[in-house]
Specification:
about 525 residues, alpha/beta, 14-stranded parallel sheet, five-stranded mixed sheet, 15 helices, globular
Length: about 525
């Protein structure tokens, strides 16, 4: 999506609340603004754009050919226009009158925003109230059905009962696609239980809300047609997450961005095909019975506690894409076995269905690197390997080529890996030792791509010189090409849109990790 509307400025009560907690209100507003930005990067795009143009006649042609189309086609045209333009079609010709009310509604509240002045907190508050009032009028005026509703700029903090009325209206008028983001403040706005009365929903994205307690809900509550669910910085407990998964029998895609208070994501579903997590905080990812799960993607992780969390993989007949595993944050379990450096291959420690594997490794930390052979053994059929090298503040033992030579036979390296992309190359000896091991042991390898962060080296000549040990090695593959490229961003400066729910859940994209943004 485009740039988000900024948070509505705090009132004096909220400012006083933050000051009592020893926090600067301006700093908190700036932080929330960044959080909104991260959320908007991962939200699905609305199906209409206000930048499109509508013509009923061809240039230099006075004949209105569009208005002569059948009513069914005219209604379809209107349903694909921004709401303001859809309503204005009534002036085009007699046949367009009343079509807006008969066509499925597409409403995107950001289309009603006026250009913001360079400064002016009061303007932001007034504008938010105006947009909220427009949304209320449109929802009341249109009889439905509601094809797609994107509400990311409205302001509900001053109208505690308004959100419940909106959700009730959306339920009655059969909303199918709903994106609903709280425009703070407050940050923890309670989401009404009316959310559970929308049986027609096929896609739902929520942002910056407190999820309702599901303990007292009737057993008949469900989302029978929900296929895609996104929770972005939503306060939700593990039991409520379990409830949602249990009551969504058609759910195929689950996306979680920095959801709060969820300590455990238990993946038990007959329908799920893709699970994605961005900035999972203190989150155990436990895969249970999920016979159709094809993709399990943790784009990034962050921990508030010192202890690591778990990623547990159960027998998974369809799982083909897994990443990014990070030894810094996660302990890997396969079935009931914790994978350690000394773990050996056995039927209970292998997942032979995984073809694409992503890892983030601190090559300066010996304990991280020692886990890699065991990880590779767990996934013996990997064909495409993605490695991201992470800098370590205090290196604790860099391992050389001798370590890798002593690792023994690794099936995926010797028999299957065809592509490897190595990101954030720094030219360190431990990185080079690993790369040399792959080149000397992977006869099926056809392409090795090495990407170094922007400005890591002074020139391409210097970067090439770092690879001299690799060219001196004896490569196992006779048809492997090596591509060295400078990335577009310095390390740690990558924009959040590179972590993309859209790419991960697009099943037409064979390998969601295989993208390179070059300088």
């Amino acid at each position: 999506m485009g740039s988000p509307a900024p948070p509505v400025p705090m009132d004096r009560v909220t400012e006083a609340h933050f000051r009592v907690r020893g926090q600067d209100p301006q700093d908190q507003e700036a932080l929330v603004g960044r959080i909104l930005g991260y959320i908007h990067f991962v939200l699905p795009d609305p199906p209409v754009s206000r930048h499109a143009t509508l013509r009923a006649c061809l240039p230099n042609d006075d004949v209105d050919r569009v208005s002569a189309l059948p009513y069914a086609l005219l209604r379809d045209i209107v349903s694909r226009l921004p709401d303001k333009d859809a309503a204005r079609t009534a002036v085009l010709a007699t046949r367009w009158r009343g079509l807006w009310r008969k066509a499925p509604l597409v409403l995107v509240d950001s289309h009603f925003l006026a250009p913001a002045p360079a400064s002016g907190g009061q303007f932001a508050r007034t504008e938010a109230r105006r947009v909220t009032a427009i949304v209320s009028r449109v929802l009341a005026a249109h009889p439905g059905p509601f094809r797609c509703i994107h509400l990311t700029c409205s302001y509900m903090g001053e109208f505690p009962s308004l959100l419940a009325r909106w959700l009730q209206t959306l339920a009655v008028k059969g909303v199918q696609d709903l994106v609903l983001v709280n425009r703070p403040f407050p940050l923890d706005l309670d989401l009404p239980t009316a959310l559970f009365g929308m049986p027609a929903l096929t896609r739902l994205y929520l942002g910056l809300f407190k999820f309702p307690d599901t303990a007292g809900l009737p057993r008949t509550v469900s989302f029978p047609n929900l296929r895609e669910l996104g929770l972005c910085t939503v306060v939700i407990f593990s039991k409520d997450m379990d409830f949602v998964l249990t009551r969504s029998p058609a759910l195929e895609t689950l996306c979680i961005q920095a959801s709060l208070l969820t300590e455990r994501l238990r993946i038990i579903s007959r329908s799920l095909r893709c699970v994605q997590v961005i900035a999972g905080t203190d989150l155990d990812i436990l895969m249970g019975y999920a016979p159709h799960l094809e993709r399990l993607i943790a784009w990034s992780a962050s921990l508030n506690k010192s202890s690591s969390r778990r990623i547990k993989i159960a027998p998974a007949p369809a799982l083909s894409i897994l990443g990014y595993l990070e030894p810094e944050f996660y302990t890997l379990e396969v079935c009931n076995t914790v994978i350690k450096a000394e773990t050996r291959a056995s039927p209970t420690t292998m997942v032979p269905t995984v073809k694409i594997l992503g890892l983030k490794v601190r090559f300066g930390i010996g304990d991280d690197v020692k886990l890699l052979p065991a990880f590779f053994i767990c996934f013996p059929a990997v064909e495409r390997l993605h490695i991201e090298s992470k800098k370590s503040a205090e290196p604790t033992g860099k391992l050389n080529l001798e370590f890798w030579n002593e690792a023994g036979a690794i099936e995926c390296v010797q028999s299957h890996i065809k592509l490897m992309i190595f990101r954030n190359f720094h030219g360190d000896q431990s990185e080079l030792s690993f790369l040399q091991f792959i080149l000397e042991r992977a006869p099926m390898l056809t392409k090795l791509v090495i990407v170094y962060p922007k400005r890591t080296f002074k020139s391409m000549t210097e970067a090439n010189s770092k690879l001299e040990p690799l060219f001196a090695a004896k490569w196992a593959s006779t048809c492997c090409s090596l591509l060295l490229s400078e990335g577009a961003y310095a390390e740690g400066k990558e924009p959040p849109e590179l972590q993309s729910f859209k790419r991960g859940s697009n099943f037409s994209v064979r390998d969601p990790f295989a993208f390179i943004v070059r300088a």
